[in-house]
Amino acid sequence: MKAHVYTSVEMPCSIIAIGAFDGVHKGHQEVIKQAVQRSKKRKVPSVVYTFDPPPLVFFQGARMLTSIEEKLEKIEKLGVDHVVVARFDHLFAKRNAYRFIDTLRKLNPAEIIVGEDFRFGKDRLGDIALLEKYFRIQVTMPVCCSNGNPISSTRIRQLISEGETTLSNAFLG
Ligand SMILES: Cc1cc2nc3c(=O)[nH]c(=O)nc-3n(C[C@H](O)[C@H](O)[C@H](O)COP(=O)(O)O)c2cc1C
Ligand SMILES: Nc1ncnc2c1ncn2[C@@H]1O[C@H](COP(=O)(O)OP(=O)(O)OP(=O)(O)O)[C@@H](O)[C@H]1O
């Protein structure tokens, strides 16, 4: 079934996975799968909250791994009910962590799923400890490659630029 896609939305209850999710690699997939599992268990809709363009693309001109269309396609395949795609621009990036918490409150999250390095808000000042003051947070353990380093969009960009497409495709799942 297709997910509902919004730029912003309010909901009576939700389980949210948050992130840039550029490439929707195996680590991202784990975060999103956890949200879908928790949503099924608690009978509450699952939401992926993501950004377009990905913040690293916006700030550093990083190469984008997936277009928004491809990203939505990969997210939908994981069985998510709703996707919020926030437009990431100068105005959005200036919102402080508390303002973003107010945005999340509008989704009434029963749980929020993130990876352990998740940061948010102006100058990346918001962290998991702050989020935990307002919501119930589940942290997904890092999905690592064979050398023990976590899979990341940055690593995949590097592999692609080195022509290591077999490995990058393996990480992209
Ligand atoms: C409201 C808001 C403001 C942000 N402002 C900044 C910023 O000023 N500088 C920055 O590097 N990242 C900023 N970000 C991006 C975050 O650092 C981070 O990339 C985003 O929350 C997604 O998390 P992820 O990178 O772990 O997927 C902001 C994010 C949000 C939600
Ligand atoms: N390997 C991983 N295992 C588990 N969770 C992950 C992994 N990589 C990222 N996450 C989590 O997924 C969400 C989205 O992460 P993000 O888009 O920043 O990925 P990233 O691969 O670290 O990207 P980049 O390298 O561009 O910073 C965040 O909550 C993050 O903590």
From TrEMBL:
One of its GO terms (molecular function) is ATP binding. It catalyses: FMN + ATP + H(+) = FAD + diphosphate. InterPro entries: FAD_synthase (IPR015864), Riboflavin_kinase (IPR023468), Rossmann-like_a/b/a_fold (IPR014729). Coiled coil: none annotated. Its EC number is 2.7.7.2. CDD domains: FAD_synthetase_N. SUPFAM superfamilies: Nucleotidylyl transferase. Residues 14-155 form the FAD synthetase domain. It holds the Pfam family FAD_syn. It comes from the Bacteria. GO terms for biological process: FAD biosynthetic process; FMN biosynthetic process; riboflavin biosynthetic process. Keywords: ATP-binding, FAD, Flavoprotein, FMN, Nucleotide-binding, Nucleotidyltransferase, Transferase. Pathway: Cofactor biosynthesis; FAD biosynthesis; FAD from FMN: step 1/1. Belongs to the RibF family. This is FAD synthase. It comes from Mesobacillus zeae. The lineage of its organism: Bacteria, Bacillati, Bacillota, Bacilli, Bacillales.
